[in-house]
Structures are given as structure tokens and as C-alpha cells.
Amino acid sequence: MNHESFSAPWPFPVGEVLALNPRHFSPAPHGWDVSVSAVELATLARGADAVRRLGARRGYLGETPANVALKELLEQRPEHFGRVHPLVLGADEVHVPGLAMSRGGAAQLQIYGVECIDGLQRLQILADVLDAWGPAHLGRATVRLEIHCGQYRDVARELHDTAHRHVNAPTAQDGLIRCPNIRRLMAGDWEKEGSFDPRRGASAGPRRRLYGMPEVTRGLACLATGDGPEAAHLAATDEGLQALWGSTGSALYLQVFHDRMSPLGVVRAVKAYEAARAALRRLPARYREGAGHVLVYAPDLVCREACRGLLPAAELHDERSRFDWHGVIERGLPVAVEHTAVDLVRRYQAVHADLGGKQYKGEAGRLDVWRAILARE
Q: What b-and-e string marks burial along 336-372, b requiring 16 or more CB atoms within 10 Å of the CB?
């Protein structure tokens, strides 16, 4: 019988053969690109010796967040399971009956010396879902395979062993481009104001100011529509920014990023926030002694209270607002910051005493302390 072979001479190696009936396959420089029903792979990782037999780097890791998410995807939307990342296999040899290929028939791939370079977690998930949901459900999922042979197998193994060094892990900020309110803001008229882009690594060019996501978030949170300090508190730290950005659609997120945002409103908010922080830095050092540490460890609380006490937050994004935003921010806000700082230090002194007089650092930045300060007369 004629055969199309790849990567290794006769004779066949001794051992088990993985036979697949692919939905699509094509030869590639590294070996083969294959699409196959998930049912065909569902038993590959079964058995106590599966990890050793497949030469995988590690065994099944159980209910990790990634594995739970993949299993839920396979159960709820099986047709999407194999759309993103292929399974990566190594092989001593791959054979395809030449007769079936030449006639365009349903060729069967015969894979000798199978190695799982990347994908054992997904293989085990396939086996679990097969047991729970049956072959009809699993048959709705198509899995892509990269099968590497010869010298390419060694290269693929080395790359996947160190893949974490070659990948920029996504963050919550990377998902903001999918938010319709953010996209609507991007499409607004920024011609006179600079430019806005929520993405990491964005650039506006040398002659235009780029309004980046951290400063925009902190400015908008300072004048958010909610009554409490939660948005400003989250936006005050890098970790809090990620938490806020990762909660698109939540009530707190929509206090900051709603569908009424305008470029002019964003510019007003950012300028107000920057002016308040600058005024806070200019206060004499004596303001930051004792309970004045609240100005050091919770500056955004001061900025929020000063801005909301002086500026009409309800008109922030109103382009027809007759309020003198520029003049009040430039001349009135520094005075308001000083008065607000004195008032909040007085309140914090009482709250700090109620809490037992512990270290200011770590205490003044807590949300419950912010709430207690604002509730104090």
C-alpha cells in the first residue's frame, strides 16, 4: 500500500498508534495542522499512566481557575472550545493512506509515538465532559492540533517549556476596548482636547496629549455619580484600578464609565483631579503630622471631597454647562483643597482614636475608614 509519510523513515516504531479521522488536515513545515472532533481525543489522557505515556510536563492540576473556565466553556458552548488555542503534540511519525488522500476521501491519520507538548489540561477536561455529557455533546466541539515532527518537535517543546517568558499576560485594562461606553467615548470629538485611548501602550504622537486610562479613571472617579467614596477609593491604587476595570457592567463601574461621557467632561475631570493633587502637595509639611497622615495615605479622599464640594458633578459632561470650569479649577480649587484637608484631618483624628490609635499607614487607606471619616460630623 502507498503511504504519505512525514519526518521519519521505516520501520514503524513499536507502540500504540493514535488513529484520527480529521475534519480537516494539511501538511505544514513543522508537521501537520489538523482539526478533529473532540470525541476523537477524549480518551487520550485517561489512565493513571497517561502523563508518563504522553510525556507531558505535568499532570492534571484539578480545579484551577483556568481549568474551571475551560470546563464551563466546553459544557456551555462546546463549539467555541477549540477556537483559540491548539493542542500541541509531538510525533515520531505521521502517516496518511495515500489512496484516500488522492481520491479526496476520509483519510485517517496514523500518529506514532505521540507526545503531549502542550494541552494535557484540556485533554483531561475532554475526558471529564465526555463522562458527564456524552459523545453527542462533545462532538459539537472541534479541536485544532499542531503535530510537530523531527527537528520541529524539539523546537516546539523548548518554546512551550518557556512559553510564560514569551507571553504578555492580559490585564483587566485590555478588556476595556470591548466596553460600549468606552468605545463611544473614543469616537467622540477629541480634536481640541488631545486624544483618548484606553489601551496599554497607546501613543498619540508628539503634538497631542494622550489621555490614558489611569488618569481618566481617577479623574472621573473623583466626580463619579455615586454618593459614596467607593469609586475613588478603588481608583486610588493600581490594584483597585484593575478591579474596577474588570467589573464592566457593575453598578460601581457605570458610576464612572456611563453612556453620557464626553471628551470635554473627561478633560474637566482630569484637570480637576490633577489640580487637586497639586494643591495637596503644596500644603506645608505641618498639615501632614499626626492625623494629617490621612493626606499622605488617602490623598484621593481629599481630592474627591474638595472637587465634589466645589464643582457641579451633574454638569461634568454637559458641553452647554455655563459653569466656569477652568476658572474655578485654577483659582478656587486650591483653596477648597486646603479647607477640605483641614476638615478631614479633624474628622480622622476622632476616627483614629476610635480605632485604637494604630499605625496610620495601612489604616488611612481602608474603605471602612474613608466611610467613617465622611460620616463623622
A: bbbebbebbbebbbebbeeeeeeebeebbbebebbeb
**Which pTM value belongs to this model?**
0.78
Neighbours of 111 (CB within 10 A): 24
State the Cα torsion 150-151-152-156 to the nearest 10°. 110
**DSSP category for residue 107:** -
The Cα–Cα gap between 267 and 192 comes to: 10
HSE toward the beta carbon, residue 162, CA cutoff 13 A? 6
Ramachandran category for residue 128: left, alpha or beta (phi over 0 → left; psi -120 to 50 → alpha)? alpha
Nearest to 298 by CA among 244, 242, 352: 352
Tell me the pLDDT tens digit for each residue of 97-127.
Answer: 754 443 344 578 899 999 999 999 999 999 9
Could you read off the pLDDT of 29-46 as tens digits, one per residue?
999 999 999 999 998 988
Cβ-based neighbours of 52, under 8 Å, separated by 6 or more: none
Residue 298 has pLDDT above 60, yes or no: yes
Pair 217, 239: CB distance under 8 Å: no
Using left for φ > 0, alpha for ψ between -120 and 50, and beta otherwise, residue 168 falls in: beta
CB neighbour list of residue 85: distance below 8 Å, 6 or more residues apart: 119
Phi, psi of 8 (to 5 degrees): -150, 145
